Amino acid sequence: MALPPGTLPEIEPVSRESTAAVIARQLRDAIMTGALPPGTQLGETELASRFQVSRGPLREAMQHLVSEGLLRSERHRGLFVIDLEPGDVYDIYAARSAIERAAMLRALRSGDRDRIADLLERTVAEMATAASEDDPNALSTADLKFHEALINASGSKRLVRMARTLLIETRMCLTALQSTYQRVEERVEEHTKLIQALRDGDEETALALLEAHMEDAVQRLAPGTSLRGGHAPPVPGNA
């Protein structure tokens, strides 16, 4: 149904990304990659100088990241990059498991398995290259692209939307996770097996591998925690 003429007289066409959106994107990337580590306090004066902007768009950008859950506000102290406690890690991977299980099922039943598998193989090739070049940052970026590609391939706008912030938090986890592997090739192998199960249309194996992949990450990042056993530490603020 079309809006009646004159209903939204103040709205003008958006021609380019706003300054606040550009700042939010750059801060988000810095949080994801660990350039702004967990617990870092963000000072308005320093950031405004670094970005060469006024405090207005900077505050707008930071409030957007607060709403995304990537920054936390402490009364009388300011804004800080969130710390991912064991309860947060459990919560992130439990939510991802539900979303990616649904995405995998849709991919398996789509009749388009080979195309999706080919797409995922390209991200695994990037992982392999990063591993051979001993580039942990590129490896984690390619790892995240694999899971993002799987969710996008589901064709579900809602799964994609639900996964958006989870994948940003996952990138923070991957920065910590990369130090727990004795052989970086393990990460490549895990994803390769998932692709083969998808290509074969082996639903039971694909879902079991995906569950094991999530469980392994949780146990590496939060020892003593298990998605399978329901051993979930409390999430700060919800205890």
TrEMBL record:
Molecular function GO labels: DNA binding; DNA-binding transcription factor activity
UniProt keyword annotation of Transcription present: yes
HTH gntR-type domain mapped to chain residues: 17-84
Pfam hit, one: FCD
UniProt KW keywords: Coiled coil, DNA-binding, Transcription, Transcription regulation
Coiled coil feature spans: 174-201
The keyword ATP-binding is assigned to this record: no
Superkingdom of source: Bacteria
Protein's name according to its UniProt entry: GntR family transcriptional regulator
Organism of derivation: Amycolatopsis vastitatis
Record lineage: Bacteria, Bacillati, Actinomycetota, Actinomycetes, Pseudonocardiales
